[in-house]
Amino acid sequence: MSAQADPSARTVQVIVTVPPHADFLDELARHPRVGGLRLNTVMPLRGRPRDALLRLGALGKPLWIDLKSRQLRVAEAAVPPFTAVRLSQRVRLRTPTRAYFKGGRESARVLAVDGDRLILEDGPRCVLGPGESVNIPDGDLAVEGLLTERDEAFVHAAVELGLHRYMLSFVESPADVAAVRRLDPLAEVVQKIESRKGLDHVLRRGAADGELMAARGDLFLELRRPHHLLSALRTIREADPRAIVASRLFDSLAWQTEPEAQDLTDAAFLLALGYRRFLLGDEVCLRRDTVFAALACLDRVIREVLPNPTLEAV
């Protein structure tokens, strides 16, 4: 059945990342294209997790709590020159290998691992701040533990408030999802696929453990070749027709008032692949003018690509 004949193929849903203390969230939640909200739990909070969840949960849209799990992040600021980076978790990996920072724009050769510290041959030529992501595409990487202490604090607060929707980073096995459901038996988990092991998990299990998300930012860096992202997007969409696609959507609008041409064609390509659920990420959602501009651009692309698109809550 074609998209023109199938009403479900015209239904497009948008989840927006919410800066927890922004003053435009009520307006954003009322936007007709917004079907859900995402809280990135790495964002600093004023007060306890419970306070933020209580406030965001009252906005009237489904709230997804994004847990970091095995996603590696910088734990302490590092100012050049430096030859070590402390991570958010302890890791085991084969050395030497390469670690990537700043969304892949900087890298360094890892000579050894000391618990939660990477010992580098030469550090990146930039300041690394706490919370910044670190990618180590080596297939032998093992991250010790599943949920972080901060993840668990958010799950406990969510259960107390009757909130049960989560996004889980770097899912690579059913055990990752089970760790959340041990704390919250009612958990609805979106599995963020961000690595080669995650793709193998999709091929084995599909969406049996929860809905899928093509989290393109980290996934792009973790694949062996850049063009492998295209087949990965198809694999995830075929495994879960309701899969969410995320990362690098209209990011240019975080820095300028007009989108780049590739932003528009990127969104159109994702629609052509069959994706109907989009997540707008951190940078473009930090300010009112940029997130509303991204929603407007995405709406124009949707109306250009799909005949008579409809709206639906996530």
Shape call: globular
CATH H-level superfamily title of the largest domain? Phosphoenolpyruvate-binding domains
Order of helices and strands: EHEHEEEEEEEHEHEHEHHEHEHHE
Low-confidence stretches: 1-9
Specify the structural class: alpha/beta
The DSSP helix count reads: 10
Rg over alpha carbons: 19 Å
Distance between the termini: 23 Å
Oligomer kind: single chain
CATH architecture of the largest domain: Alpha-Beta Barrel
Mean pLDDT: 92
Give structural notes:
α2 packs across α3 and α8 crosses α10. The protein has 2 domains: 231 residues, Alpha-Beta Barrel (TIM Barrel); 59 residues, M1 Pyruvate Kinase, Domain 3. The protein is an alpha/beta fold and 314 residues long. The N terminus is likely disordered. The chain contains 10 helices and 15 strands. The strands form 3 sheets. The protein has an 8-stranded parallel barrel, surrounded by 7 helices. The two termini are 23 Å apart. The radius of gyration is 19 Å and the shape is globular.
Tags for this model:
314 residues, TIM Barrel, M1 Pyruvate Kinase, Domain 3, 2 domains, 10 helices, 15 strands, disordered N terminus
Short characterization:
With 314 residues, the chain is α/β, with parallel strands linked by helices.
What is the fold's blueprint, element by element?
Elements lengths: L10 E7 L7 H6 L3 E7 L8 H9 L5 E5 L16 E3 L4 E2 L4 E5 L4 E9 L2 E4 L21 E2 L5 H13 L3 E4 L5 H10 L4 E6 L2 H10 L5 E5 H7 L5 H12 L4 E3 L14 H13 L3 E4 L1 H4 L2 H18 L4 E2 L3
Parallel strand pairs: 1-2, 1-14, 1-15, 2-3, 3-10, 10-11, 11-12, 12-13, 13-14
Antiparallel strand pairs: 4-8, 5-9, 6-7, 7-8
Helix pairs in contact: 2-3, 8-10
